[in-house]
Specification:
Elements (H helix, E strand, L loop, with lengths): L3 H10 L14 H12 L3 H17 L3 H8 E3 L5 E3 L5 H16 L3 E6 L26 H20 L7 E5 L4 H10 L10 E5 L2 E3 L1 E2 L6 E3 L2 E2 L1 E3 L5 H7 L2 H8 L3 E6 L10 H9 L4 E7 L9 E5 L2 E5 L6 H4 L12 E10 H11 L6 E5 L3 E2 L5 E2 L6 E5 L12 E5 L2 H4 L14 H18 L19 H11 L5
Parallel strand pairs: 2-20, 3-4, 3-11, 4-5, 12-20
Antiparallel strand pairs: 1-13, 6-10, 7-19, 8-9, 11-15, 12-15, 13-14, 16-19, 17-18
Helix pairs in contact: 5-6, 5-10, 5-15, 8-12
Bound molecules: 2-acetamido-2-deoxy-1-O-phosphono-alpha-D-glucopyranose (GN1).
């Protein structure tokens, strides 16, 4: 741990000595806690970060104009599709994916470092119980889906395989997540195949480039965004662990989508058979302002333009037939080869764009009292997981059906969309369809059969055959 003098020198070098203004009021223990936090900040990186944040915030408004003129949609013929592909092709992709899983070449990686601010819970989102009859949490649903895909691969290939589960957490989520998994016996998975690691935290900064204090002895810190993954992979030797296990393909996903298909064999098989090093699942956007990023090209390079950075005029553009021009909604389900991740970690991770989020950051005022600001006062810098697409040599997009694969938990009940109620309904509706496909009959209160509404009937049927046993 640093001495007070060392900490002062470091902060001086970074132009941030204001954070020590309450030093004389702190107890011995509080001083130690603070010095410990300050020890973890590299002075060079710190001053760069504060400068970059202030500069980026003043530049942020210019990005929209650039996108207007340089952005174009991905042509439909370049997007693989569950809905538009024939039975034989889908089966080939499914077989290929299952084979890769059976041969222990596939891992899943969960991005679970976020704070669930919109949902309004203080614990990790994965621990949320959405009120299913089974009472299962998002973590449990995901664990059981991993188990099921392993079983399916084992049955088909007569092997005993493992799909390791890498979980990226943050200072906010690591401890409660570990505790939750332990208390629940890792939901039946072998603990040695559940690998948790932590992403970095970075300071929140005021508009004039000064670190914000959230307590007299604590800096306001935030996770470095889900694109912090690439640095965390290096910090925690995760790629070495994957190499030891023989993992070649990684399915990366975010925690809140209740319908996520862990290590989806069709998606894995599609990406592998196209020779892709990087891939993204998309769904057709439901409405222009839907808070999903859009997969598109900017200056001819594939990327996701995040919803927070897309101007409404662009989001609302339509083709003459009425369909949205930017309709490929990112569902945060990505495919990467381990080689690609290795390359990004070694060569490009420092070049990832810093996205600016202007937020209300609670702070201590000159008297040392905590203030909860009513308007934004600070900058949080975040990296985005999809910003590595530009480094890909072969990028593919894969369109899937929303009702089968995307229903995210973002907001608390009361909001119109993406709430515990809507995700619960999505999962129950999916199970209803699966039950019907397996021969069940549902009757309404008058004893009349209820007819299922299935869009795109054929591929759903095919996927159902392979996923029926993966139900909950
Ligand atoms: C940086 C990032 O990954 N953003 C993703 C992610 O956004 P959230 O802000 O976490 O809701 O999930 C969305 C899908 O639920 C996806 O559309 C979006 O692009």
């Amino acid at each position: 741990m640093l001495s007070f003098e060392e900490a002062t020198a470091r902060l001086q070098a970074a132009g941030q000595t204001h954070v020590l203004r309450f030093w004389s009021e702190l107890s011995g223990e509080e001083k130690d806690v603070f010095l410990d936090e300050l020890s973890q900040l590299d002075p060079e990186e710190l001053s760069q970060h504060c400068r970059a944040a202030a500069e980026a915030a003043s530049r942020a408004s210019g990005e929209g104009e650039r996108l207007d003129t340089h952005m174009e949609p991905v042509a439909a013929e370049f997007i693989g599709s569950v809905c538009k592909s024939d039975k034989e092709t889908l089966k080939q992709w499914d077989d290929e994916g299952i084979l890769q899983i059976a041969e222990n070449r596939v891992a899943v990686l969960l991005l679970a470092g976020g704070q669930g601010t919109r949902l309004g819970v203080s614990y990790p989102k994965g621990m949320y119980n959405v009120g299913l009859p089974s009472g299962k949490t998002l973590y449990q649903i995901q664990a059981e889906r991993i188990q099921k895909v392993q079983e399916l691969a084992n049955e088909k290939n007569g092997s005993k395989c493992t799909v390791p589960w890498y979980i990226m957490t943050s200072e906010f989520t690591l401890e409660p997540t570990e505790k939750f998994f332990k208390e629940n016996g890792y939901f039946g998975l072998d603990p040695s195949n559940v690998i948790m690691f932590e992403q970095r935290m970075i300071p929140a900064v005021s508009f004039d480039g000064k670190i914000i204090l959230e307590k007299k002895n604590k800096i306001a810190m935030a996770p470095d965004g889900n694109g912090g993954l690439y640095r965390a992979l290096v910090d925690n030797n995760v790629l070495e662990d994957m190499e030891k296990r023989g993992v070649q393909y990684v399915h990366v996903y975010c925690v809140d989508n209740i319908l996520v298909k862990l290590a989806d064999p069709v998606f894995i098989g599609f990406c592998v058979s196209k020779g892709a090093d990087c891939g993204a699942k998309v769904v057709e956007k439901a409405y222009p302002a839907e808070p999903v990023g859009v997969v598109c090209r900017v200056d001819g390079i594939y990327q996701v333009v995040e919803y927070s950075e897309l101007k409404p005029e662009m989001a609302e553009q339509r083709h003459p037939g009425g369909e949205l021009v930017y309709s490929s909604g990112n569902i945060c389900n990505h495919f990467f080869t381990r080689d690609f991740l290795q390359e990004v970690a070694q060569k490009f991770q420092g070049q990832l764009k810093q996205h600016v989020a202007i937020k209300k950051v609670p702070f201590v005022d000159e008297e040392g009292s905590l203030v909860k600001p009513t308007k934004p006062n600070g900058i949080k810098m975040e990296k985005f997981v999809f910003d590595v697409f530009q480094f890909s040599k072969k990028f593919v997009a894969f369109e899937v059906l929303r009702e089968e694969e995307f229903s995210p938990l973002k907001n608390a009940d009361g909001a119109p969309v993406d709430t515990p109620t809507t995700v619960r309904r999505s999962l129950l509706a999916q199970h209803y369809r699966w039950a019907v496909q397996a021969g069940a009959n549902f009757l309404d209160e008058h004893g009349n059969p209820i007819t299922p509404k299935l869009r795109c009937q054929y591929p759903v049927l095919l996927l159902l055959t392979s996923f029926t046993q993966r139900s909950l």
